[in-house]
């Protein structure tokens, strides 16, 4: 499969990617600080220890989510172009680049949307992580507070302000939302592309394993004392809904494109759906 260079000025999908990633980068670059939420004295849900080692660190999450999904899509589109004889009417003349551009573009668009929503929730809610007091390096005894009373402000003894800021971003879990989105998107992709009839259980087996990887990633955040169970559950829901929304909206034919009595241009969906041949066969000659 030969990849050719395409001028960035002719890639309309880059604009949505930039716009949807603005909230994400604004949060990552510390342009916005999280909401300063207090706590009730004696609340045991924020007294867990801080563990240096994480079961699924950020680098592994990104590599497993983006790299594996991206490589699978790249190989899948290469196979379709070479052996399935797919067609495209997109502005990109190279067939492989056209198909890869649409599939990866839709996937990355969903990544930007999901992570922007996650970071916006983290900053606006400001829920304290289970290890907040340990990160803050204080105890209820040192605070000398009355059990059950609300502590609006606390002076942390942690010299690294970055760790304190991160300890205020519990809701909702970015790991669980990102893992569920990437793995579920890949499961949807396999559903549309993997049509080998020699092993009928191969596709559902792979899809099951992908979902289990996402579930394990989210559950590991609870055992690492990084998130509360409700944070992880909400992340699963957000990631799953984002994947379903991207696949439904970005990779489905526009309404009214078929059955108008004339030869209608298919809005460049020929590389985006697993029903290209069936759709084209319904169009009048």
UniProtKB/TrEMBL annotation:
Listed transmembrane segments: 60-79, 171-189, 201-219
Domain (Phosphatidic acid phosphatase type 2/haloperoxidase): residue spans on this chain: 104-247
Location, primary (coarse class): membrane
A cellular component annotation (GO) from this entry: plasma membrane
InterPro entries found in the cross-reference section: PAP-like, PAP2/HPO, PAP2/HPO_sf
Keywords: Membrane, Transmembrane, Transmembrane helix
Localization, UniProt: Membrane
Topology of the protein relative to the lipid bilayer: Multi-pass membrane protein
Listed SUPFAM superfamilies: Acid phosphatase/Vanadium-dependent haloperoxidase
GO molecular function, one term: phosphatidate phosphatase activity
Classification via Pfam families: PAP2
One GO term of the biological process aspect: phospholipid metabolic process
Family: Belongs to the PA-phosphatase related phosphoesterase family.
Protein name: Phosphatidic acid phosphatase type 2D
Taxonomic source organism: Hucho hucho
